[in-house]
Amino acid sequence: MENPCNDSNGDLAESCEKTLTRRERRRAETRERIIRAALRLFSERGVTATTIEDITNAADVGKGTFFNYFPSKEQIIADICHTQMGTIREFVARTVQSTQPMNQVLYELAVIKTQEFARSPALVHNILAPTLAGEATRQQMAEDLTRDRHVLAELMAARQMRGELRNDLTPLELAHQFQRAFFGTTVLWSLEPLKPLPECLKEMSTVLWSGMRAQITNRQKELPGRK
Fold first, then answer.
1. CB 89, CB 151: distance < 8 Å
2. Where are the domains of the chain?
3. Domain 15-71 is of which CATH architecture?
4. Which of 15, 156, 170, 226 could link 174 by a cystine bridge, Cβ 3.0 to 4.6 Å?
């Protein structure tokens, strides 16, 4: 049977386009509902103790619908990480040549990387524990961190060229230091959440920036044009 959406009639084509948009919107809303339900349960019970049936009941969807979006509950976490990677790439592309101060860039980058987990300290270690417990998930996490590090290195390299960052470390080494500081801050906050995570990340980025920025020597300060 011929697809009416292939008809050259403009009104019909517009109607089909709106229908497709509504369908895509519904799919996105359903996917988001599943993710939100899963994250809430992971925070409350942990990943291992949460079943797919728990997630589908909380999201008010059938199991078949769940598997249309995710092959397993662990894939929800992997998909969040992949989505986050795309967001980080977009952020780096915007800030590579921007005039935004690097200390602010470091802070915003840290906030972006934790936006899914900052609501609940329990969510961080409930997800981290099973991830580190399995060989396959550990390997996947290591690969994700390596890809993330190379993306961040693009930003570090550009800011080194502009003289903002110290040049005795490679861009990859600077990116690695950011990962260490960010990861450590997030894990420690999850274990002892004395203040909101963004406040901890602000403090971390301020201290990190003091160690990453290019140092101006006394001789450079005396050069014409420098104050």
1. yes
2. 15-71, 74-215
3. Orthogonal Bundle (1.10)
4. 156
pTM: 0.76
Task: Read off the tokens for 134.
Answer: 């399995």
Q: Rounded CA gap, 83 and 28, in Å?
A: 13
Alpha carbon distances (Å) from 188 to 118, 155, 183, 200: 12, 26, 9, 10
101 confidence band (pLDDT: 50, 70, 90): very high
Q: Regarding the domain with residue range 74-215, which homologous superfamily does it belong to in the CATH classification?
A: Tetracycline Repressor, domain 2 (1.10.357.10)
Spell out a b/e string for 198-222, using b for 16 or more CB atoms within 10 Å of the CB, else e. Answer: eebbbebbeebbeebbeeeeeeeee
**Selected residue with higher pLDDT from 58 and 119:** 58
